[in-house]
Design a protein that fits this description.
This protein is of the alpha+beta class. It has helices spanning about 10-20, 40-55, 65-80, 110-115, 120-135, 140-155, 165-170, 185-200, 205-220, 230, 240-255, 265-270, 335-345, 405-420, 425-430, 450-455, 460-470; strands spanning about 20-25, 30-35, 90, 100, 105-110, 275, 285, 290, 295-300, 305-310, 315, 320-330, 350-355, 360-370, 380-390, 395-405, 420-425, 435-440, 445, 475, 480-485. It has a seven-stranded antiparallel β-sheet, with helices on both faces. The chain has a four-stranded antiparallel β-sheet with strand order 7-8-9-17, with no helix packed on it. A hairpin with a 5-residue loop joins strand 11 and strand 12 (about 320-330).
Length: about 500
Amino acid sequence: MKNLNLSAKVVVLLATLLMIPSCAVNPVTGKRQIMLMSEAQEIAMGAQYDPQVLATFGVYPDQKLNNFVQKIGDDMGLISHRPNLKYHIKVVDSPVVNAFAVPGGYIYLTRGILAQFNNEAELVGVIGHEMGHVTARHSVSQQTKQTLGQIALIGGMILSPKIAEMGEMAMQGLQLLFLKFSRDDEREADKLGAEYASKISYDAHKMADFFQVLNKMNMAESEGGVPTFLSTHPDPGDRYNSVHQYATNWQQQLQNTNWKVNRDSYLRMIDGIVYGEDPRQGYTEFNTFYHPELKFRFNYPLGWQFQNSPIQVQMAPKDGSALMVFTFARGSNLQIAADSTLLQLGVTVQERQSTTVNGLPAIATVSVQTSQDQSTGQQVSNQLLSYFYNLDGNFYVLHGLAGSANFAKLFPTMQGAMKTFARLTDASKINVKPDLLRVKQVARTSTLQEAFRTLGIPADKYQEYAFLNNLELTDQVQSGQMIKIVTK
């Protein structure tokens, strides 16, 4: 969980931009089409949205990696269909295997997707694919819609009258940051990605190989896999063969004799990258949430679903009858933080009490909000229990929302959880370490499974690590070959 400062100015800016449609020439197709915004407005929108993305995810703190992807973006941008646009390529601190772009040339790669790449050419192909969305201006209309949806969700989720649906949306909130393009858009971006990668001398066939990896990962999601690139970039159909054909066509046309793949240099570059969830950003044990960096802890109700995101923490019972949300409260002191939060939510405060929770100054409030259910037109009343906390000058709030009919029944459960918020002092909980991706050299020629056995890898990790290397356990690996494993 990290701080997120969603400014009302962003909403005003986006609304203003959307009101001025224009007719422009698409840089890729050369055809005239209706655009919701000019290029200048598109760039301004990206510049406004970029800080929000970075506040949400954080930049992954590896300057060498960030410099490398930016250099690829600079080189590729010059040969793209929009060479005068400045491209901003950044690695964000998320385990989700994905890449996404926002208007104006802003492209983001998660550390999760970098861990899955096995060479530079795969990385370059995905950057080219995302740049294709930007140059063809796919992201303009898509990002406009979903940025507004993202802001509306985060700003108004506490007040939704449909609690069950709201709980589901809250759990999926982060995914709204990822664009969902049409299959035609995906097909065009694949074609442009192969073109751009080839024009800076990388083997675009590797882009097709990586999409095949993503297909395998997408199939494994029901077994607990993380959300993937394909969950937001739908497969346009026969992507593997199509991208291989695009790559072959460009290689024949360009007549280069040395197509770069750069496997070993890439693996050395990602050696030590954080793999999977980073417990330093918050983790759970049983029904307790710990945040080692911010040094707090609290319990959540037994049996409730729990989702930690960089924006906030959400908890909800499986029946969707309530929702609890933990997040930051903004203000120069605790009272101002509480007042401004409740004012922004537009609720009517019924009860308010200054108190202490485990030695920390706190304010507890009960509020009510009445809204109209858009599906039925009926007035719906919700009640909100909020505890605001002051931990060393940092202000937090834990909201508990339920319909008025169920609020009294759920009140003790939600209040009980809120009264467990406390300073985290247990060194064993504070000093947790994330898993790291490590690159090892194979000692002798053998099967991949034998190499894992020699390295002391637990047998239950063989399949996961084979997939990480895009290899089968029965594949031969050569003496000195680099492979990826995961360690503390």
